[in-house]
Amino acid sequence: MKIDAHQHFWIFDPVRDAWIDDSMPVLQKDFLPGELAPLLQQAGIDGCVAVQADQSNQETDFLLELAAQNDFIKKVVGWVDLSAPDVGERLEQWQDQTKLAGFRHILQAEPPEKMASREFRNGIGALCRLKYTYDILIYPHHLPAAYDLAKTYSYQPFVIDHLAKPFIKKQEIEPWKQQVNAMASLPNVYCKLSGMVTEADHAFWEESHIRPYMDVALEAFGPERLMFGSDWPVCLLAADYQRTIDLVKKYIQTLSESEQDQIMGKTACRFYNISN
After folding, report:
1. Domain boundaries, position 187
2. Rg of the chain (C-alpha set)
């Protein structure tokens, strides 16, 4: 099964979605399953993982409703306040939702110290206890704190979104490379080949600009812990859906068929427990 392990849906609200400012007019509209479905079909993708974009109590239910209506949405990564004192009870309300795989808190907007706080770690412990995954959305300067978190919670499955957003536009690779290698030394940590085109120069990027970063991820994690994600529709800032997937397909074409299958679906199926 071919899986896009990272994309988003939203009904655009200029107040709620203030991060989508006037420099991003292509994103200032609704993005719903009816628009994604033909793109997946054209690209030969069987299903996707819908990841939260809004940090609200309504977001998880919104995505689950879309997943119930569209079979190609295989799993949902929702949002919950992981620092809430009653986080365990909040998570338990979704225990019967089989399409809910895990959760994400947008850590890139927080200081690295957030990951060391007692309240946040209590939330990670609740995820672990209830067998939910956790998507790590961070910048490179968060990686040491993320390493400590993932090492401490060694039974919790983590996946790094967008390679932790390395400085592709500046073509800087250190100390990001060293820190990613450290993260990859932890067997409970996976990584998404996603969000790369938007970290490059939106108008002038080429595969050669991004390849060194994919090299690091592949060498560090191997195909069995790497998964493709389009980051649609955010990718539209720099590339359409087909160009985004072609970037990864071209990069992995020298790998064995089984290794390509891991990156293009099997790793995501294993991590997110996708069976059909």
Report:
1. 3-272
2. 17
Q: How far apart are CA 114 and CA 264, in angstroms?
A: 32
Distance from C-alpha of 31 to C-alpha of 20, rounded to nearest angstrom: 13
Does the global pTM surpass 0.90?
yes
Cα-based angle 147, 149, 154 (whole degrees, multiple of 5): 95
CATH number for the domain harbouring residue 247 = 3.20.20.140
Residue 227 pLDDT grade (very low, low, confident, very high; cuts 50, 70, 90): very high
% of residues, the chain, pLDDT over 70: 100
Count up the domains in the chain and report the number.
Answer: 1
What angle in degrees, to the nearest 10, is found between the helix axes of 176-184 and 207-221? 30
Cis peptide before 233 (omega within 30 of 0): yes
pLDDT digits over 87-125, tens only? 999 999 999 999 999 999 999 999 999 999 999 999 999
| Averaged pLDDT for residues 206-222 | 97
What span, in angstroms and rounded, lies between the C-alpha atoms of 94 and 215? 38
Q: Which pLDDT value is given to residue 276?
A: 73
Range 15-19 average pLDDT: 85
Reading the block at residue 85, the tokens are 């004192």
